[in-house]
Amino acid sequence: MILPVDFYRRPTLEVARDLIGKVLVYRAKQGVTAGAIVEVEAYIGEDDPACHAAAGPTERNAPLYGPPGRAYVYLNYGLHDMMNAVTEEEGHPAAVLIRALEPLEGLPLMRRRRSRAPWRKGKPPVSDHELCRGPGNLCRAMGITLADNTRPLTRGPLTIHDRGITHPEIVWSQRIGIRVGTEHHWRATVRDHRSVSGKRY
DNA sequence: CGTTCGATGCACT
DNA sequence: GTGCATCGAACGT
Q1: Mean pLDDT over all residues of chain A?
Q2: First-to-last CA distance in chain A?
Q3: Which end of chain A is more exposed for a tag (fewer CB within 10 A), N or C?
Q4: pLDDT at A166 over 90
Q5: What pLDDT was estimated at residue A121?
């Protein structure tokens, strides 16, 4: 079952918690890829210095201010696409960054896409559990790009599903890879999961 | 195990 | 011109 818009129109920390174990699906022309979410981070409002809305509305962060249940995709470090799910009411800028998946479907396609990265030329293919480890890696493996920015997650090629995965054990920790706002423990991971990026708990 | 650092594009100031 | 919500290699312990 595809998660409805009301799933996303809630406090961001609740959405973040509940996204763990849900399944991200991309139906591309090349084939279907899917993975269970095992790591997320919440970015909440203009008072959160690490949130892209910290400096107020801009052209780039406009999707954060838009309706919930849509994708906010942006390019980071000039290299990596990052995918968020927009949360809360329209006008309240907040989102959940999808940081890692456990690959479920389309692993050969994921591996082909990962191998296509310029910095992986001539390198051995990555193992299964590494295919979607890290926000940049998962976007590359899933084929998620800036073209998917603002796409609804309730229909179309990019969707998030409840497939009844049973209550993974969730651990909260500091968000990683940021230089401000590290005091908040707004990173949720599945305990000791090998597809989680960075430190595991 | 850990830390450091270069690649790379673009929004923002 | 500056600085990233990263990745992976190259080192040191």
Answers
A1: 96
A2: 30
A3: N
A4: no
A5: 86
* A133 CA, B3 C1': Å apart: 21
Nucleotides of strand C within 7 Å of the protein's CB atoms: 3-9
A71 CA → C13 C1’, Å:
43
Tokens representing A50 are 């690490």
- A113-172 residues near strand C (Cβ < 7 Å): 114, 117, 119-120, 123, 126, 133-138
Q: Is the pLDDT at A4 greater than 90, yes or no? A: yes
pTM, two decimal places? 0.96
3-state secondary structure chain A: CECCHHHHCCCHHHHHHHHCCCEEEEEECCEEEEEEEEEEEEEECCCCCCCCCCCCCCCCCHHHHCCCCEEEEEEECCCEEEEEEECCCCCCCEEEEEEEEEEEECHHHHHHHHHCCHHHCCCCCCCHHHCCECHHHHHHHHCCCHHHCCCECCCCCEEEECCCCCCCCEEEECCCCCCCCCCCCCEEEECCCCCCCCCCC
- Spacing of A164 CA from C6 C1' in Å: 31
* Mean pLDDT computed over A87-112: 98
Task: For residue A93, name the pLDDT band (cuts at 50, 70, 90).
Answer: very high
